[in-house]
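Q: What would this chain look like folded?
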Amino acid sequence: MKTLKVIDFFCSGGGMSLGMQKAGLKIVAGIDNDISCKETYETNIKGAKFLHKDIFGLKPEELEGLFPNIKRNDNNLVLIGCTPCQYWSNIRTDKSKSKSTKNLLVEFQRFVEYFNPGYVIVENVPGIYKNMTKSKLSNFIKKLEEKNFAVNANIHNVSEYGVPQSRKRFTLIASRLTDKIVLPKKVKKIPVLKNVIGVRNGFPKVNAGHRDKSKFMHTVAGLSELNLRRIQQVKKNGGTRFDFSSDKDLQLNCFKGKDKSFTDTYGRMSWEKISPTITTKFFNVTSGKFVHPEEDRAISLREGASIQTFPKSFIFKTSSISTTARIIGNAVPPKYAKAIGKSLYLIHESN
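A: My prediction, written as structure tokens:
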């Protein structure tokens, strides 16, 4: 059986590519318009080429010319489109900045229709599925079915596939080679935070503002004196900002009388539970429940990466905390991607 070949659109730093590679697929190329991802991607996804292109200006014929081993109607070709998802995210943020990316699925569809691959994968936030018409997903699925693709499209929580965080994702798996789609296999036991971070897992205790100049990158964002005092009052292993709400010197004015708003802010993670969704701002204690279960700091870059299931050997070639966190937070968890890759092989072997 020939090896399945992958073109990973919107690849970022390579979470999906890494998982697929670990499942045995050959990653031909990753495509992204963010040049800051290039060095990280090519350092870790061995044998793959990072193509710095904006999909709006990229033509299928151009892609075909760049990679001679990528042909039309190739049963062994897998096209993956994990389009940037901020516009369809449920997170309450200003959508004006991400408006230009809301219909990237339509651009990805051009390549699917041109190459007619054996397999198509789409991974995104649940919002793209809940707004099928506006997001153009319904038309995308219709076009696949017109080309005789079998399609399975649903929302999954990646925790059920060995990722120690609550992260609901929309996943579409399609094949034109069979009418039966094999879904990723769920794990028997979901890992929790004590299984992946902490001293016993190779993460020495550090303070807020610690800078790790090694490849391990156990780097932690700094804290103002006031914010440090706040989280020192938050109970270990699962405490919340309500632990300091009665202290007039520590309570924030924006929370006074609004106890039901942004309840995760300044919250501590719990050893016995999975993590909340790792976002691109996980290094900031004001952005969610990202305070270490017992240390008075936000989780480090490497801890966030480990919760996303990047191996400790994965090297982030970046220039700032925010850039690294963006790559980590935007990534498809490699362990989930590996599960999808294994399901592709099960489908492939049945034909």
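Residues 334-349 form the longest helix (16 residues).
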